Amino acid sequence: MHPRSHGLSAVTERAGLLFGADYNPEQWPEESWPEDIRLMQQAGINLVTLGVFSWARLQPTEGTWDFGWLDRILALLDEGNIKVCLATPTASPPPWLGHRYPSTLPTDAAGTTLWYGSRNQFSPSSAVYRSAARQVTAALAERYGQHPAVVMWHVGNELGQISYDDETAAAFRTWLLRRYGSLEHLNSAWGTTFWSQGYSTWEEILPPRTAPYLHNPTQVLDFKRFTSESLLGLFTAERDIIRQYSPAVPVTTNLMGFFRGADYFSFAGETDLVGNNWYTDPGQPQTWELGALTHDLCRGLAGGTPWLLMESAASAVNWRPHNSAKEPGALRVDSFSALARGSDGICFFQFRQSAFGAERFHSAVVPLAGEDTRLFREVAELGSQLQDLRLLAGTPAPSRIAVLFDWNSWWAAEAPDCPTDRLGVLDQLQAYYRPLLRRGLAAEVVHPSTPLDRFDLVLVPSLFLLTEDHAGALTSWVHRGGTAVVGPFTGVADSNGHLRQGRFPSVLAPMLGVSGEEWRPLAEGIGLDFAAPPDGVSADAPAGIQATVWSEDLRLDGPGASAAATFASGALAGKPAVVRNSHGSGTAWYAGCDLPGPALGHIVGEALAAARISSPVAGTLPDDVELATRGGHHFLLNHGAEPRTVTLTGQSVDVLTGDACGPRLALEPYGALVLKDSPDPLENGN
């Protein structure tokens, strides 16, 4: 069994799907705690995350401890049959630590100290901070490692801190020495002959602090790698202490989806289960699309096994400039999207809305107005429905489609010295993923090192940095019969961020049957002429399509290559814009330009046909409707404010009501249907 699957299943085998919230009893009078537990039971909550920001309460001064309050609330929760994910409070040190030990405080790139009075006020490289964090972790683990209520451990919170202080600089140099072994190798890897940057001693090397102009791009890339590994080191240090006292209880931390500050593929390999925070933005109508992609990333991080949504919002958050509330029904639709894409639970931040502090306007399971509120009733209804769906716990949400993604490439591709800032990596991922959503298809977002044999189609929207080994593995997989679609500006750089010499993308040239000589960001749009689709593909070639941001000067190389689209005008008129190539038993497409939605839908549709992946919908779903399948359950979710209809080929059963359905189904605004063994949808209308 996959180790992370075992970590989560150790909890869900007893509890079923998890339903919970962050709980901060230290913010409330102790007399109110029994009432909190009553409301948890009423809402169907079976898990709370406890103690995330309680360091100052647990250790009021350096030499004193107070565990009595935590003993009492754990006893009450255990008596109420509510399990606990116990957190180490190391994300927010108490003021005494920063006051007595200023070296623990982080500095920004300009050298400004970031003071206590908020949260995250620590430098990951600080030896004093690390010692204090180990001490509080050990105290918690020793005291509660065998507590019957504790079924999961939560290290820190949203690990993402960064610092440029002198202690960090020394740790960075140590990391570089391990990586390169000598200054000679470092100077070569960093290309320090450029701009007279050659280093003669290790002491000269600094983090990329504020400088007059552009930094050395490899120095910046290595500092991001170092920072990610430092954050991971914080996690593993606390995890290992916990395992000494609590070896049978899974340990995790809450990731943040497509967060730039840490490489989560490395984190996923060290956690017992993959946990993630996702906050839909109700003010952005298509925010659910990024949510679906994020959930598919989590499933990829978990190796295709279930994961856990550790934080979401019941309604509005407090940290955006303008914080829209969720419409009635949206809470359930957002939650079902995560459930359908592999989450074994739905958890909220937080249980009771704070009356004070910086998050006092953040929504909660129990609003300030109490239980007689629409929001609490919606949470309780969701809790009841999760009980009806509890057998989904542990079931997979398999996909035959992979999306390749790499944090190292993301960091390198968006350096300020690149040809454009308009070809964003995450934008490209969403663009290539959207045609799958419109067809009701899921994917797994995986690292380029992932074995691909369980997939039939691989999308590579943006891998600027691509190693020869990873390129060779993808090429061999296509040669054996796989189908791939590769986006622009891919395979350009090696692991140091150095540009490969010769015609690009050299490491993928045999697979793609194309080579290029110049990247040409566009000042104005260029029309594209699409060739007729290959035999067996019924979709018409798109017309009236333009590339607006990016173009590449390409030529066909190889007998199996043909132009799926050409540039219609300008210096590239008649030259290939999109190339289709037969490679061994497989087929690959390369887009040498940015493609708008209809064009990407067409190319991905051709690739799906080549991979023999059939869509569960004929045509496409409405823009605000999601279809996802898990464990024989088909989730039809309307993320919009307008009613939609879906027509099925036959009868089905609504799992939540037991009613026979179909073939034509109506989705109310923010409506959700869960169907068991439903026929594939055939037709969708507005």
Taking the sheet with the most strands, its summary is: 9 strands, parallel
Number of E-type strands: 28
Mean pLDDT across residues: 95
- Number of contiguous helices: 18
Helix content: 25-40%
Strand order of the largest sheet: 5-4-3-2-1-9-8-7-6
Q: Outline, from the CA principal axes?
A: globular
**Based on helices, strands and strand pairing, what is the structural class?**
alpha/beta
What radius of gyration results from the CA coordinates? 26 Å
| β-sheet strand percentage | 15-25%
Question: What is the end-to-end distance?
Answer: 44 Å
Give start-end ranges of low-pLDDT stretches: 1-5, 678-686
Can you characterise this structure?
With 686 residues, the protein is α/β, with parallel strands linked by helices. It has 18 helices and 28 strands. Strands 5-4-3-2-1-9-8-7-6 form a 9-stranded parallel sheet, sandwiched between helices. A 9-stranded mixed sheet has the order 11-10-12-13-20-19-18-15-16, sandwiched between helices. Strand 24 (652-654) and strand 25 form a beta hairpin. Helix 6 runs parallel beside helix 9 (217-245), helix 11 packs across helix 15 and helix 15 (425-438) packs across helix 18 (597-610). The longest helix has 29 residues, at 217-245. The relative contact order is 0.09. InterPro entries: Beta_galactosidase_C, Beta_galactosidase_Trimer, Class_I_gatase-like, GH, Glyco_hydro_42, Glyco_hydro_42_N, Glyco_hydro_b. Belongs to the glycosyl hydrolase 42 family. It is an enzyme of class 3 (hydrolase). Residues 22-388 form the Glycoside hydrolase family 42 N-terminal domain. Residues 625-676 form the Beta-galactosidase C-terminal domain.
